[in-house]
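Last lecture ended with a question: if I hand you only a sequence, what can you say about the shape of the protein? Today we answer it with a concrete record. The protein is 19304_t:CDS:1. Below, first the input exactly as provided, then the predicted structure, then a couple of comments.
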Amino acid sequence: MSFTSHDNANDISIFNAESMLPKRINDPIHGLMEFDDWMFGIIDTPHFQRLRNIKQLGTTYYVFPGACHNRFEHCLGTAYLANSLVKRIQDTQPNYKVEKDLECVTVAALCHDLGHGPFSHTFDNTFIPQTRPDIKWRHEDASLMMFDHLWENHHDTIDFSTDDVKFIKSLITGDICSGRSRYLFDIVANKTNSIDVDKFDYLNRDCYYLGMKSVFDFSRLMRYSRVIDNQITYYFKESYSIYELFHTRYSLYKKVYYHRVGKAIEYMLCDAMAEADPILGISKAIDDPEKYLQLNDTILNEIEFSKDPMLKKSRDLIKRIRTRDLYKFVDEFIIPLELKDHLTEKKINSREIIAHQSDNDRLGEDDVIVNRIKLSYAKKNENPVDYVKFYNQYDIDKAFNLEKSQVSYLIPEQYEETIIRIFTRDCSKMKPVQDCFRKLLKTFTTEPDDPNSSGSVGYTLPEEYISPPKKRQKHRASRR
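The predicted structure:
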C-alpha cells in the first residue's frame, strides 16, 4: 500500500491509499476525516485553495494569537460533518437514501464559504458597506458567484448536472427549493432554527484555537437526530444541549468575535483598504470572479510593501497596526428594551455626538466611530428552540415542540440585545469623545440618576486621563 501526501495548512496531512479507499485528512477537531476521491476535484481548485489565505476569525487573530486557523480547514470540517450526518440518516432511515443527495450536500458544505473576502466578515460586514454603501452584498452572494465560476472552469472533472448545481446553490443559501427532500436544507445553512453543521464546526474549531473550553457537544446532537415529517428532529433529552449551542455562540460573539480591540483593528484595516481602493480596485473585485479569485488576506502585504506614493496613507495605517498604535475603544451602552426603537442611527451617530463638544475639544466627525451591534441566539429576538422539533423513545416517528419551561426555568426571557460602542481614531481624544457621548445619552432620559442614561461605569475615564502615547512620551522624558 503506497501513500502520497498533500501539502495542507496547519499540519493537516492527507494520505492517498489505493484508489478503492477514500482519502483521509487528519484534523485537530474531528480526527481522521474521510473524503471520496472525487471531492478533490473541488478541493484542488484555485477557488478552494484560496481559502488557505483567509483567516477564519479575521482581525481577531491580532488579539488571540492562537486563532490562526483559516476558512480552508473550516470548510473541510463542515463538509465532513454534513457527509457524516446525511450518511447516518440514510443508514438509519433507508427511505431517505439517495446517493446524489449525499454528494450535493457534501459539496454545498465544502463550498459554502468560497465567497469570503479578506479577513472573513471584516470584508462583507465593514469594508463593502464603507466603500459601496449603495449595494446590499453578503459573502453568500460571492459564494454563489465563485461556485458558478468553479463549475464553469472544472465541470469536466466534477460529475454534476445543471439541476444538481442549482440544488447545491440553494443548499448554500438555505433557500428551500422543490424537487428535493426538505430535511436536506436543515444541514448546511438552516434558516428554520439555525442548527446546522456550519455552527457545529466553527463553534468547536474556534474554541479550540482560541484556547477556550466548549461545553457544547455536537456529536450527541448528530447521534440523536432523526428525520420526521421531512425535518431534522432531536431526542427531547438533548433540548438543553441545543440551548448550550446557542449560548456558546452568543458568548463567542460577546467575548471574542466582537472583541473591542479586534473591532478597533478591523476599522483600521478597513480604513487602510478604503484608502487603497481607488488605486487597487479592491471593492470592485466582488463583481468579477477572476479578480475575486486573487483577493485574500495577502492584500495587506500588497499594500504594506508597495512603493506607490498614492498608498502612503494606507501603509501608515498598517504600520500603526504593526506597532500597536491602535484606534481606541471609548465607551459602550447596552440599549434597554424601552429605548430600542427610539435610539436609532439617526439619533446616535458621530455628528450628533460631536455636537455636544466643548469649545476646546476640537472634535471632527472622523474622530468618532459608532459601532452598533446586535447579539442574539441566532433568530433575532426570537427563541430559536421554539422552531426545533423533538421526539421521544416511545414514538420515534412523532415530532413535537418543547416549551422552555419543560427544559429549565433558568433559560433567558430575552434573546437579542443591541449594543452601541464608541471608538476614536485619535487616542488623545478619548476623554472628550466619551464626555460627548454621555452628554448625548442624557438627552434621552428625564431621570439624571438613571443608570441607563450613561455609558458603562467600568469604562469611565478619570478627569485627568492621559492617553497611552502621552504616558509613553512622559516616561521617556523622565528617563533622560
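Comments.
1. The CA atoms of residues 131 and 274 lie 6 Å apart.
2. The radius of gyration is 25 Å.
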